[in-house]
Amino acid sequence: CCADQGANNRIELLNGAGKLIKKVGTTNQDRFQVFPVHTMSGGDTVQARLVGARYIRVTSEREQWMSFSWLAAYNRKGRNVARGGLTKTSGNYPGVWGKSNTPISGSPIKTGSGNSWHSASNKRGEWWQVDLGGNHDLASVVFRARTDCCREQSSDLRITVLNKHGQVIYNLGHTSNNQLQTFDMPVKKATTRKVR
User: Fold this and answer.
1) What SS3 class is residue 33?
2) 148-173 burial string, b = 16+ CB within 10 Å, else e?
C-alpha cells in the first residue's frame, strides 16, 4: 500500500563532515527507482569509468536453465544505454519465454514467465548479450531475477563487459540469489560518506 508515502522524498549525498555534495533526485510513486550518481560537485568526485564498453554478456558456466527478467547498463550520466539495444543469445526457449529483448525492453517491476528471457537448454555455456550500440563509459549494471519461480535459474551467472571487438574488458562477477543486484564498475576515487 501507501505508494504516495514513498513519493516526493529527496535523496542527497553527504561527505564525512555532513556537508551536502549532491542532490541525487526526488522519489516518485514507482515501486522501483534507480538513482545513478557518479560525478559529484564541490570537489568530491567519484570516477566510475569503463571506456569502450560495447556489449554486456550474461553466461551460464554450469549445467542449468538460465532465465532473468531485467538488465540495465548505466553510463556516467545516469542513462540506461542498454534499453533499445540489439540482443543476441545462444538460443531461445520456444514461446513467450524466448524473446531475447525482454530484459532490456520490459519493466523492472513486471517479472515472471511472460516478462523474462529463458535459455533454449540447460547446457553449460548458454549466454545472452546486448549490444549497447556504441562505446560507452559505463558506471553500473543492474540485474533482476525472476520473481515468480526458479530463482536458481537467475543465480551463478557470470556478467562480463566486452569491447567492440568482442574481447572481455571487465568481469563484473556472478549473480546471486538476490532478486535485485547492482554491479558497479571500478571506482578510482570515492569520498562520499553518507546518503540522506
Assistant:
1) coil
2) eebeebbbebbbbbbbeeeeebbebe
Query: Which of these, 131, 160, 134, lies nearest to 52 by C-alpha position?
Result: 134
154-194: pLDDT as tens digits = 999 999 999 999 999 899 999 998 888 999 987 544 444 55
Query: How many CB atoms sit inside 10 A of residue 182's CB?
Result: 14
pLDDT on residue 189:
47
pTM attached to this predicted model: 0.71
Cα–Cα distance for residue pair 145/23, rounded to 1 Å = 30
User: E strands of 15-103, at which residues?
Assistant: 20-26, 53-60, 67-68, 70-75, 86-89
Q: Dihedral angle at the C-alpha atoms of 28, 36, 81, 95, nearest 10 degrees?
A: -60
State which amino acid sits at residue 36. Answer: P
Mean pLDDT of all residues in the chain? 79
Q: How far is it, in rounded angstroms, from Cα 113 to Cα 147?
A: 9
